[in-house]
Amino acid sequence: MAGRVGGTMPLTVATAALACSAPHSALEPASQAGAVIETLWWVLFGVCLFVLVAVLAGWAYAFLRRRPGGEPEGEGRALMWILVAGAIIPGIILAGLTAATIRTSSRIAGAGAADALEVDVVGHQFWWEIRYPEAGVVTANELHIPAGRPVRLRLASADVIHSIWIPRLHGKLDLTPGRSTSLLIEADEPGEYRGFCAEFCGQQHALMGLLVMAQPEPEFQAWLDRQARPAAESADDEARHGRQLFIRYDCHLCHRIRGANFPDPPGQTGPDLTHLASRRTLAAGTLENERGILASWVLDPHGAKPGVRMPATRLEREELFALVAYLEGLR
Ligand code: CUA
Fold first, then answer.
1. What's the mean pLDDT in 152-169?
2. Which of 147, 153, 251, 290 could form an S-S bond across to 183 if both were Cys, CB 3.0 to 4.6 Å?
């Protein structure tokens, strides 16, 4: 589909191994936690490969040595084989891998990070609400973080269980209704990282994408300051008309626009649109944020994402232009 942002499908470990240079490969870590997880990945891969080769070699040996009509092995020897190869060796291997996994988990838990930036991430069907409580900023689907500084993501869910996974930065962690958990991430370098929902949460689970933008601290602070401002005033008559339509068609009952002074209490169901035009993507990292795509998204969101919670809006041509002009003014 035109305008679809590539690579929003969650990856299996197998395809991650094949796509090492992708922006979402766990085998191309961009953080210390990611590097520790990558090491464990290779350990698991190496041990499993060794076991596979050993089992195949044993099978080939038995096959080649078989003598049709020959005497079967003694019962005692057969029992010894079952005990050693079927219980003791697998037991030792599994215990070793369990220990390695527990050690990795404790190394990436990152308990002590006093200077961490706190960011609230709330999972919704099917998008991410992102809040910077200290700055009073609310945005969606694009997580800006300062590079080289720990960020504590405080996770919650508004509906069902979701799971956040930014493969290059950290392992995945569930967002569970009624429970709060936290994930400490840190990007070593400025850059862009893809994130996903990694827990099936409904029809649009596969397209619940997240864009993580790690920026140098001053750039991040400048972005945060801009986001903290209320929405821009509508610049011209068309945009002002669009603002009226935003209210007439009840968009404001779901979408909040800070500083817009709508007649009803601010909506919370859909993404905050205060600075919509400053975002790169629409529809949870799925579509480019571009005029034609924005217009078709407003008219028929189910065309791009069947099952999405936003209803279609029937608009005359001029109305659509006006509404899009208003939304594009929200810089
Ligand atoms: Cu949210 Cu899957």
1. 95
2. 153
